[in-house]
Write a structure and sequence with these properties.
This protein has 253 residues and is α/β, with parallel strands linked by helices. It has 2 domains: 200 residues, Rossmann fold; 40 residues, no CATH class. The chain has 8 helices and 7 strands; from the N terminus they run H-H-E-H-E-H-E-E-H-E-H-H-E-H-E. The protein has a 7-stranded mixed sheet with strand order 3-2-1-4-5-7-6, with helices on both faces. The chain is globular.
Length: 253
């Protein structure tokens, strides 16, 4: 039995995209709404690829407890990993009950410990993102899912709070932000924010000996626009945020 009503099942519609965009606009002023709605959408999205009910799940870069609540509500046994203690208590929110402070590139779990490995908007903050992706694959059992989404550098929000000026250079955008606000950006180019592309993620997945690609799609856009991921160059700008869904080889779904 599903852990949530059918009305909460995932649909990649224009309405959903508009609702998410409206939520993004209040990230700073109403973080409970923003993170709560994003977490609920994320849990529904992941469950569209496989049931969460009873699944052992790791969220790499889970941060505060918003995602813990959303995935647990769908029946998952949810474990979060975050390297930053401050992120785990963002906006005064406590981390979930099963939260571990550790690096995503050296996960402290045995091979095949989880049914699902998930990461939302973390790879762009990691100097070696594909090392983290490899670790996520390692801790998933054969037949399990690896679900990774990340913000593309050449998209409209690639520079995070420094966007769209990041398109003229990450260091230049950071200096401009500091001049305008009187303080440096939270996401510092070259230290905690790195350029990352759709091509790099798709290439990594295709070359991996351990996973098959289930889907590569724009995370926040309607399903009718999914084809842009297949168009080189265009996808780097128009996709905005890439979602990779992978299945660990060596088992059945």
């Amino acid at each position: 039995m599903s852990a949530v009503p059918a009305s909460r099942e995932f649909r990649a519609t224009w309405r959903r995209s508009l609702d998410l965009f409206r939520s993004f606009l209040v990230e700073q002023t109403d973080p409970d709404r923003f993170y709560g709605e994003l977490a609920a959408d994320s849990a529904a999205h992941v469950e569209s690829f496989g049931s969460l009910d009873g699944a052992r799940m790791i969220d790499v870069g889970g941060g505060p407890g918003f995602f813990a609540d959303a995935f647990a509500a769908r029946g998952a046994t949810y474990v979060a990993v975050d390297a930053d203690a401050g992120e785990m208590r963002l906006h005064g929110r406590a981390p979930g009950p099963r939260t571990v402070q550790a690096s995503g590139t050296a996960l402290p779990f045995r091979d095949g410990a989880f049914d699902i490995a998930y990461s939302s908007n973390v790879l762009e903050h990691v100097p070696d993102p594909w090392a983290m992706a490899d670790e996520m694959v390692r801790v998933v059992r054969p037949g399990g899912l690896v679900v990774i989404s990340y913000t593309l550098w050449f998209g409209p929000w690639g520079g995070h709070e420094t966007a769209p000026w990041h398109l003229l250079g990450g260091h230049r955008a950071a200096r401009r932000y500091a001049r305008k606000t009187g303080h440096p950006p939270k996401n510092v180019y070259g230290e905690s924010l790195f350029p990352i592309t759709a091509a790099a993620g798709i290439t990594w997945a295709r070359r991996s000996a351990h996973v098959d690609i289930v889907s590569a799609q724009p995370r926040y856009l309607p399903w009718v626009l999914r084809g842009i991921v297949d168009v080189p160059l265009v996808r780097e700008v128009a996709t905005w945020n890439l979602l990779l869904v992978l299945r660990r080889r060596g088992g059945t779904a």
